[in-house]
Amino acid sequence: MIDDRRSLQGVLYGLAAYVWWGLSPLYFKALTHVPPPEVLVHRILWSLLLLVVLLARRGELAAVWRAAHERRVLLILAATTLLVGLNWFIYIWAVANQRVLEASLGYFINPLMNVALGMLLLRERLRPLQWASLGLAGAGVALLAVRLGSLPLVSLVLAVSFSLYGLLRKVAPIGGMAGLAIETALLAPAAGVALTVWAIDQRLVFGHGSRSGDLLLAASGLVTALPLVWFANAARRLRYATLGFLQYAAPTLQFLLAVVVYGEPFNRTQLMSFSLIWCALGLFSIDVWRQSAGRRSTHSPRAS
């Protein structure tokens, strides 16, 4: 009964995190009057402030400070800082420029990109269904590139940056919230300089627009940190395979917002490309489920 309740809590936390991320275009659409670089800067600074408060309440600031002085941790987080900054900026820019559909494609590709990076960088051996998944996803991206005359760069940058980020954070000996606090702290000096320069040049939107707009910018820390806390709670309560299935909620909601709410064009080529990638994700999910079922049967006690 305790395990069932713990799993249910994990599913609810996971759904909350992924639904929040899936609906995030609604938040960033409300900030389209603010240039994407300024939105990014506010997201960095307000996130850092909130994370420091949360870590202080949990009594973990001293541990974070010690981790930040470990050479290996700092080197890894220096790389992840660049990746998360790039990912945040491209996503904010995509929403502001009516490219939510491309952004959702990037996060659909993301789990398959994780498999590809595991093969290329970690020399992991792929199973037949994983090879088929990668082939279908590659065909979907290639179809878009050929029909549109260019690669879907927004999708690929989001997928690659987030996959590399996840790979590096996996080997970093530090928790999610603490790691993000260090990453935002590393970005904070540049963010502070940018705000100062824009204020001097009278190009700063914050404090010169509506009060509601300022409050939305100030809320960017909560928008960033809250789903991370939910995700961490879910990860502690669920198997990785279950968490993997839940992650499709975010790009699915982004896709629906792009097509149904924002009316972004969805032509036949995009339908064919998305269909190939959805088939790839279907094969990938079947493979994950089979592996998970196999492990359960292996570890379950035999009947006497």
Q: Helix proportion of residues, in percent?
A: over 70%
Number of helical stretches of at least 4 residues: 14
Basic shape = globular
Unreliable stretches covering 5 or more consecutive residues: none
Beta-strand segment tally? 0
How far apart are the termini?
Answer: 24 Å
- Secondary-structure class: mainly alpha
* Series of H and E elements: HHHHHHHHHHHHHH
How much is the average pLDDT? 83
Query: Could you tell me the strand content as a percent range?
Result: under 5%
Q: Profile the largest sheet.
A: none
C-alpha Rg (nearest Å): 20 Å
Number of domains: 1
What does this structure look like?
The model has no long low-confidence stretch (mean pLDDT 83). With 304 residues, this protein is an all-alpha fold. It is 82% helix and 0% strand. It has one domain (2-291). Helix 6 runs antiparallel to helix 13. It contains 14 helices and no strands. The longest helix is centred in the last third of the chain and has 32 residues, at 268-299.
Provide key terms for this protein.
14 helices; mainly alpha; 304 residues; single chain
In a few lines, what is going on in this structure?
With 304 residues, this protein is mostly helical.
Task: Write the SSE topology.
Blueprint: H1 2-22, H2 24-29, H3 36-57, H4 61-68, H5 71-96, H6 100-121, H7 128-148, H8 153-171, H9 176-200, H10 211-218, H11 220-237, H12 240-246, H13 249-261, H14 268-299
